[in-house]
Specification:
It is globular and about 55 Å long. It is of the alpha+beta class. It is built from 13 helices and 18 strands. Strand 6 and strand 7 (165-174) form a beta hairpin. It has an 8-stranded mixed sheet with strand order 2-1-18-3-17-16-10-11. Strands 4, 5, 6, 7, 8, 9, 14 and 15 form an 8-stranded antiparallel sheet that branches. Pfam families: PP2C. Residues 137-512 form the PPM-type phosphatase domain. InterPro entries: PP2C (IPR015655), PPM-type-like_dom_sf (IPR036457), PPM-type_phosphatase-like_dom (IPR001932). This is Probable protein phosphatase 2C 40 isoform X3. It comes from Prunus mume (Japanese apricot).
């Protein structure tokens, strides 16, 4: 990396992986011990660079023993790649559905807390064989995968060079890393399953459409004249709920296949993301119930969730909690006027009690509980209002598993923490430059505008550099200054004690467009 501030206390750099290449085959790649050279990305990709970095502050045990230890012992090793992106076949051999169903004594339908009925998602997981990966929405014969952990954070990246799509996720765990580990081991595969199901449903819908009817036999939906569709008339019930948001859905976005080039397909993608998250939540809480007698701490373990999916020119986001995806874009075609014209647009919502809308939503959901928010936290325990896991704020029997002061008193009307995500799809334009994806630890020190300007200035002077790592290093500078330490002094404080000065921080920077900047990806975990 050129132009960055390198922090090198002994033993600090624990994990580093990445890839880089030039689209111009006649030009040489920048070789180093840290990156491996790979073939170029296809030109149908809407991103030209992926960069990531992660810094730990919490001391945590990697004690993922849920599901008889399978998550930590068998599933995570198939995804984690601490030293480089690695190519793996996109086949059912990696599927969490196969591993869990063959290893548990009970059937997959028992993994869900909801009843197993012919209409339930659990029933579908049990009874249906996923379509071939080469035929689904994220169609690919093989993918590049990387992932790692920093304290209680987990980061994951999956991309297909052959088809130009990218999946990135940050799981910001709290009260332990079990929930984040579970998400890293299962959510991507669950999403792929529902995307394959969406592909099948879209095929059936196209057959109906050819006869002039929708899938349910009704007349087809007709768009308004405006640039956005009428959500109240079109969206499924989960999107009409006040807890969901679907923004920036344009009429003329591209699609994976011509036959399904409709806004309804984009909403179907968002619906699939929602269903996959709901399934993961049910699976996780069921497993917590099975093991809470031996590990009552599992009822308090949770995670924020941020998923970014770039497919063609559609940028989908799903989030629970306070991680953010921030788009850097020029306004009104001001491409060459520098960072002053660059706008930072937050693509995700912040689900915390500090947000007035979220605060009022939580209070309105519990009108008979005067102690819903105490000391700026939900039930005096949690600052985020939406999260994965954290079962003791969702079910009374899980709260009862805790003892003494750890138990929430007067849990009158659970659930107090929602699992309804914010959902968004943005159509990438020539004005869009890059996306900064980060856990809340990044934004403890930088505003959206500051993060965007730092990345912009860095990539101008370091076209082949690593902007995410640079951004993380600038955070260390600011955290050290705030604490009155040098950077070396701060980084030499052991994990756990260092949490007093900064949180676990995970950053991903996605450079958009096909302007053939050097393609690079890296993620590093520093302790």
């Amino acid at each position: 990396m050129r132009g960055g501030i390198m922090i090198k206390p002994e033993g600090e750099l624990k994990v580093s992986f990445g890839y880089q290449c030039n689209s111009n085959k006649d030009s040489s790649c920048e070789d180093s011990d840290e990156y491996e050279t790979l073939p170029e990305l296809r030109r149908n990709s809407s991103f030209s660079c992926l960069s990531g970095a992660a810094l730990s502050a919490n001391a945590t045990l990697a004690n993922t023993n849920i599901c008889n230890g399978l998550i930590g012992a068998e599933i995570l090793p198939s995804w984690d790649s601490p030293n480089s992106f690695r190519r793996v076949p996109s086949s059912p051999t990696l599927s969490r559905l196969d591993i869990l169903s063959s290893s548990l004594q009970s059937s997959l339908s028992n993994l869900s807390c909801s009843p197993s009925t012919p209409d339930s998602d659990s029933y579908l997981l049990k009874s249906m064989s996923p379509p071939s990966r080469s035929e689904g929405f994220l169609n690919a014969m093989e993918v590049q995968v990387a992932g790692g952990a920093a304290g209680e954070d987990r980061v994951q990246a999956v991309c297909s060079e052959e088809n130009g799509w990218l999946f990135c996720a940050i799981y910001d765990g709290f009260n332990g890393r079990d929930a984040a580990d579970f998400l890293a081991g299962t959510l991507y595969e669950t999403i792929v399953f529902y995307f394959n199901l969406l592909d099948w449903e879209s095929s059936q819908e196209s057959i109906k459409a050819s006869s002039g009817l929708d899938l349910d036999g009704s007349l087809p939906y007709i768009e308004d004249d405006s640039n956005t569709i009428n959500e109240e008339r079109f969206l499924p019930q989960i999107y009409r709920d006040r807890d969901s948001s679907v923004d920036n859905v344009s009429k003329n976005a591209p699609c994976a296949k011509p036959k399904i080039c409709t806004d309804s397909f984009r909403h179907g993608v968002l619906d699939s993301l929602q269903r996959a998250l709901s399934q993961a939540e049910n699976d996780f809480l069921y497993m917590v119930e099975q093991e809470m007698e031996d590990r009552p701490d599992l009822v308090s373990v949770g995670s924020c969730v941020l998923v970014v999916l770039l497919h063609g020119k559609d940028l989908y986001t799903l989030n629970l909690g306070d991680s953010r995806a921030v788009l850097a874009t020029y306004g009104d075609g001001d491409f060459m006027n520098g960072s002053e014209r660059l706008k930072a647009i937050q693509l995700t919502d912040s689900h915390t009690v500090d947000d007035e809308g979220e605060r009022m939503r939580v209070l309105c959901d519990h009108p008979d509980d005067p102690m819903t928010i105490v000391a700026g936290r939900v039930k005096g325990k949690l600052k985020v209002t939406r999260a994965f896991g954290v079962g003791y704020l969702k079910k009374k029997k899980l709260n009862d598993a805790l003892m003494g002061i750890l138990q929430v008193r007067n849990l009158l009307s659970p659930p107090y923490v929602s699992t309804q995500p914010s959902l968004n799809v943005h159509r990438i334009s020539k004005s869009d430059c890059f996306v900064v994806v980060g856990s809340d630890g990044l934004f403890d020190f930088f505003t959206n505008d500051e993060a965007v300007k730092l990345v912009y200035s860095y990539i101008l002077s370091n076209p082949s550099g690593d902007p995410a790592k640079f951004l993380l290093e600038q955070l260390v500078v600011r955290a050290a200054n705030c604490a009155g330490f040098s950077m070396e002094e701060l980084m030499n404080i052991p994990a756990g004690r260092r949490r007093k000065y900064h949180d676990d921080v995970t950053v991903i920077v996605i450079i958009l467009g096909t302007n053939q900047r050097t393609t690079k990806a890296s993620t590093s975990t520093r302790k």
